[in-house]
Amino acid sequence: MLLSLLNLAFEEKISYNAKALLKILFPLSSVVDLPAGRQGASLLILIMYFAYVIKSIKTGECYKGITDNLDRRVGEHNSDRNKSTKGKGPWTLIYSEKCYDRAEARQREKYIKSGFGRELIKNL
């Protein structure tokens, strides 16, 4: 149902009120109005988040975090742009989990950092 609504929004087949409803349902996403000549068209951009675990090849240490762009974030860790992981790389991604918003990703990160989460990571 929701996917059908999103497709209709993209194809310009829903009203302005329906687009406003999408903005309410997805506050962390954005409904982008396109330039002149394409009025009425909009594009819904959903921002996905990830809870992830990377492991240092050098030290064997694990780092847990969240991001909205997994490739960019692992690259930042490997280029020593993160204070917590600087000088301990290279890092490799050992676990990631897709989440639909930042709050869910933060909740998963907290779980991964808990005792049960550490056991999960140890078994990878």
Task: Give an overview of the whole structure.
This protein has two domains: about 45 residues, no CATH class; about 70 residues, GIY-YIG endonuclease, CATH 3.40.1440. The chain starts with a helix and ends with a helix. About 5% of the residues have low confidence. It is an alpha+beta fold and about 120 residues long. The strands form two sheets. A three-stranded antiparallel β-sheet has the order 4-3-5. It has a two-stranded antiparallel ribbon with strand order 1-2. A hairpin with a 5-residue loop joins strand 3 and strand 4.
pLDDT below 50 for ≥5 consecutive residues: which ranges?
7-14
Number of helical regions? 5
Global Rg = 19 Å
Amino-to-carboxy terminus distance: 36 Å
Biggest β-sheet: count, sense, barrel? 3 strands, antiparallel
Strand coverage percent: 25-35%
Shape: globular
SSE string, helices as H and strands as E: HHEEEEHEHH
Q: What structural class results from the helix and strand content?
A: alpha+beta
At CATH's second level, what is the architecture of the largest domain? Answer: 3-Layer(aba) Sandwich
Task: Summarize model confidence as the mean pLDDT.
Answer: 78
Number of domains: 2
Instruction: Name the CATH superfamily assignment of the largest domain.
Output: GIY-YIG endonuclease
CATH level 3 topology of the largest domain: GIY-YIG endonuclease
* CATH class identity of the largest domain: Alpha Beta
Strand order, main sheet: write it out.
4-3-5
**Total strands:** 5
**Helix content percent band:** 25-40%
